[in-house]
Amino acid sequence: MVPGPVSVPQEILDAATANYGSADLETEYVALYKSTEKALQKIMHTCNRVVIQTGEGMLVLWSALKSVLSPGDRVLALSTGLFGYGIGGMAESIGCEVRIVDFGFNESINDFELVERAIREFKPKMITLVHCETPSGTMNDVARIGELKARHGVPLFYVDAVSGLGGSLFRTDEWQVDLCLGASQKCFSAPASLSFLSVSEKAWELAEERNYTGYDALLPFREAVKNRYFPYTPYWHGTVQLYKASERILQEGLNRVIARHEKVAAYCRKRISGMGLELFAAPDALLSPTVTAVKVPAGLSWKKLDVRLREQGVVVGGNYGCLAGRVFRVGHMGSQADPELVREAMDVLASVL
Ligand code: PLP
Q: Is 258 in contact with 265 (CB distance < 8 Å)?
């Protein structure tokens, strides 16, 4: 029950047992890449191109920053947790001038005037935001930040949607998102092999200007399909599995998938409070439909809780940084957004407590 990588359904595992040719040479691979891009566009609600890269979530977080930003560029990093804060640090490490607007680790963005003032004063080239802060179990209102981005003509809006996409609504184009980042192993329930990002025309234009050429560069993907020329050998097996995973979401129906996540999350939270446990999120925070973060109860160490749960066959997520040992997480995303599975896990947790 960890918040990614989640268990991979047999159908997705079985989708890639064949031997494939060289993805660089065969037209079948290009067709598969295009179909996968199309499915991802539907899930992300975007007409923008979607680039699929080999490597898990952190890859696209870096790729998007390094491909469009130069040293000295101003980045406004909105932070409601470890990833929001960390993205600011990543931008700093590539020489950008970063201002972090920090709302604390258990809140959602709740002061939009503060954000607007920061945009006015700092005049960033890019705003960064995390859709679902996995370590905190909280969400952010991407649409409202998108409105501010558009109102103040900020060139780029970068959103880490790695743990929300495919389990909650994400309207990339309507919310003015230039770089929407996702990964295969969270709500898509595929192996941790691929990550992907939608790229707006503005982002492509700035990537052309920047002309970054590293292994994680975005730009070579701009013409990759048209020219049938990828910057490195694409991962055919991984793409087949991501395609299957996306098709499963679309076949179930995106709205139904989202409703399933919400229902399971509400059930999980109800059981958690029924056990006398406390959610990590502040009472007014937006709660994630894909992961629930819970305070480790007083008088019990995370280490001991983890050992006891494992003895009963249940593994939940621990945490990182300042949340390590203090907050644990139940991942109910993708294949794990399953009412029966969450009920069983909650029964075990209750008995262990
Ligand atoms: N962004 C968020 C919000 C995440 O939760 C994660 C992974 O937990 C990542 C990015 C990075 O993904 P990965 O660990 O697959 O590289």
A: no
